[in-house]
Design brief:
Mean pLDDT is about 85; it is low at about 110-120, about 420-425 and about 470-484. Helix content is about 45%, strand content about 20%. It contains nine helices and 14 strands. The chain is an alpha+beta fold.
C-alpha cells in the first residue's frame, strides 16, 4: 500500500478525488440548506395565506361557526387577546408550536372581548382591519389521527364584536421533508459514483501523462546498467514539460558523454606523453647502471624536467576541471607581462599603465608564459606583447611573425595534447597542453582567449579579461625590449 501511494499517479488520483469529494460535500450541503430554506419559506407563505383567509372572514363579521376552518385539513386556531382559544379546526386533536396547546374552544367570560380594551400587541388596528404577520414558528399537529410537522404563521385582525383576535394557521412540511430526503438520497447515491468516475478518469489521464516519464526512467536505468552514454531517452511529440525534460536529459547525456570521452582521451594522451620521458629516463639509468662512464647526465636531467613540467601541467588541469576558483587578488597585467618577458630573447612589451584585473597572479602568469613560449617557438625573429584597455576589458595580445595558424585549426589548437606539426618532436614542441591550460585559465577568470592573424603575418593570441581598475581612461604607454 505504501509503495502504491508512493507513486505520483496514485497521489495525483487520491488528491483529485479528495478535492472533488470536499467540493461535492460543500456544494451538496449548500444545496440542501438552500432547498430547505426555500421550502420552509414557501410553507410559511402558504400558512400566512390560510391565516389571512380566515382573518378576512373575521374582519367582515363572520361567526365562528361559519368560518372556513377545515379547508385542506390544515390546523387552524383563533386566539383572543387573553390567549384563550375561541375557535379551532374541528378534527384538531393535538398541536404544538403556536403557544396555545388547547384544541377545544372556550367561550369568553362576560365582559371580555370589549373592543375598547387596551391593545398591547404593538400594532394599532381599526375595526375590520387585518395586521401584518406577527410570527412564524415550526411545530406539529394531529388531525383526525394523522400527525405531521407544520410551519405556523400568526396574523392579527381587529373585529367589531370580539376585539383583537390572532389567527394561527399551519402549512404541512411533508413536501419539504420529502424534497430534502430525496435530494439527500440522490447525493448519497450519486456522489460516490461521481468520485469513482473522477478517480478513474484521473488515473487514466495521469497514467497517460506519465507514460513518457516512465519511458525516460526505463531508458535512464538501461543507460546506467550498460554504461552506454551514446544512448538517448525518447522525446515525446507533445511539446510540453515532459518533452522539455526529455530534451534536457538528452542534452545532459550528450554533455556527460563528451566529458567522459574527453576524460578518457586525456588519460590516454597523458599516459602516452608520460611514457616517452619515463622510458628515456629508464634507459639512461639502466645504461648508467651497467656502464657508469656512458651516463648522459644532461639528458637525464632534461627528461626529469620534462616529467616535472608535464606533471605540473596535468595537476593544474585537474584543478581547473574540478572547478577551482581563482584568487581575487588585483594583478597588474603590464607588470606581469614584463616579468614573464624577462629572460626571453626577442620579446617586445608595450603596456599601458594600471591595466589591472582580479584573479590569480600565478595562473595568469602561467597563461602569459605559455603564450610567450608558443610565440617564441613559431616566430621567425620576434614576439610582441601589448597590454591595453578596451572599454571595460583588459586586453593582452601576443603576436609573432611566424607562419600563423590556419583558420580551420584555430579552435583545435586549444584542445589538449594537440600539436599541428605531427612531425615535430616532443622535445621541441612540448606535450600540447600550454594553449589548453591558457584558455581554461582565461575562462575561469571570466575572459576569453582567441587567435587571429597578426599584422606581421603570424599568429595573434588575444586574451580578454574583465578590468578591475578604479579610474577610466588610458595612460601613456611604455615600451621595453627584453633581450638577453
Amino acid at each position: 500500500m505504501s509503495r502504491l501511494l508512493g507513486s505520483v499517479r496514485a497521489r495525483a488520483t487520491l488528491g483529485a478525488t479528495l478535492v472533488v469529494a470536499v467540493a461535492l460535500v460543500a456544494a451538496g450541503t449548500a444545496v440542501l440548506l438552500s432547498l430547505r430554506s426555500n421550502l420552509l419559506g414557501e410553507a410559511g407563505t402558504q400558512a400566512e395565506r390560510s391565516a389571512r383567509e380566515v382573518a378576512t372572514e373575521l374582519a367582515i363579521g363572520t361567526p365562528y361557526g361559519e368560518l372556513s376552518l377545515d379547508v385542506d385539513d390544515r390546523p387552524l386556531q383563533i386566539v383572543d387577546e387573553e390567549g384563550r382559544l375561541v375557535a379551532a379546526s374541528e378534527d384538531l386533536e393535538r398541536i404544538s408550536g403556536t403557544g396555545v396547546d388547547a384544541v377545544k374552544p372556550r367561550p369568553a367570560p362576560a365582559g371580555d372581548g370589549d373592543p375598547d380594551d387596551d391593545d398591547d400587541s404593538g400594532e394599532s388596528l381599526e375595526a375590520g382591519e387585518i395586521g401584518e404577520r406577527i410570527t412564524v414558528s415550526d411545530g406539529s399537529a394531529t388531525i383526525d389521527g394523522d400527525t405531521e410537522d407544520y410551519r405556523f404563521a400568526a396574523v392579527p385582525v381587529e373585529t367589531d364584536r370580539q376585539g383583537r383576535l390572532t389567527v394561527w394557521a399551519g402549512a404541512p412540511l411533508s413536501a419539504e421533508h420529502g424534497a430534502v430526503n430525496t435530494a439527500l438520497t440522490v447525493m448519497l447515491t450519486g456522489f460516490p459514483l461521481l468520485l469513482v468516475v473522477v478517480a478513474w478518469v484521473t488515473w487514466l489521464v495521469t497514467g497517460r501523462a506519465l507514460r513518457p516519464v516512465e519511458g525516460i526512467r526505463r531508458e535512464m536505468a538501461a543507460i546506467t546498467a550498460s554504461e552506454d552514454l551514446a544512448r538517448r531517452v525518447p522525446v515525446p511529440g507533445t511539446h510540453d514539460e515532459v518533452a522539455r525534460l526529455a530534451s534536457t536529459t538528452n542534452e545532459t547525456l550528450a554533455a556527460l558523454e563528451t566529458s567522459v570521452e574527453r576524460q578518457r582521451r586525456f588519460v590516454a594522451d597523458a599516459s602516452h606523453e608520460l611514457r616517452s620521458p619515463i622510458a628515456s629516463l629508464r634507459t639512461q639509468l639502466e645504461v648508467a647502471a651497467a656502464h657508469p662512464e656512458l651516463l648522459d647526465l644532461d639528458g637525464a636531467v632534461e627528461d626529469t624536467v620534462r616529467l616535472q613540467r608535464l606533471a605540473a601541467d596535468l595537476l593544474l588541469l585537474a584543478r581547473l576541471d574540478a572547478g577551482e576558483r581563482p584568487a581575487d587578488a588585483r594583478v597588474d597585467l603590464g607588470e606581469l607581462a614584463r616579468e614573464e618577458a624577462g629572460g626571453r630573447d626577442g620579446v617586445r612589451v608595450r603596456a599601458e599603465d594600471d591595466v589591472t584585473v582580479a584573479g590569480s597572479r600565478g595562473q595568469l602568469g602561467r597563461v602569459l608564459a605559455n603564450l610567450l613560449d608558443n610565440g617564441r617557438r613559431h616566430a621567425r625573429s620576434a614576439v610582441e606583447v601589448s597590454v591595453r584597455r578596451d572599454g571595460e576589458a583588459a586586453v593582452v595580445a601576443v603576436a609573432d611573425d611566424g607562419e600563423g595558424v590556419p583558420a580551420a585549426d584555430r579552435e583545435r589548437i586549444f584542445e589538449r595534447f594537440v600539436r599541428l606539426d605531427a612531425a615535430r618532436s616532443r622535445d621541441d614542441g612540448g606535450a600540447g597542453l600550454g594553449l589548453a591550460i591558457a584558455r581554461d585559465v582565461a575562462v575561469r577568470h571570466g575572459g576569453t582567449l582567441t587567435v587571429h592573424d597578426a599584422p606581421a603575418g603570424g599568429a595573434l593570441f588575444e586574451l580578454r579579461l574583465p578590468g578591475a581598475w578604479s579610474s577610466i581612461g588610458s595612460t601613456a604607454s611604455t615600451e621595453e625590449i627584453r633581450r638577453t
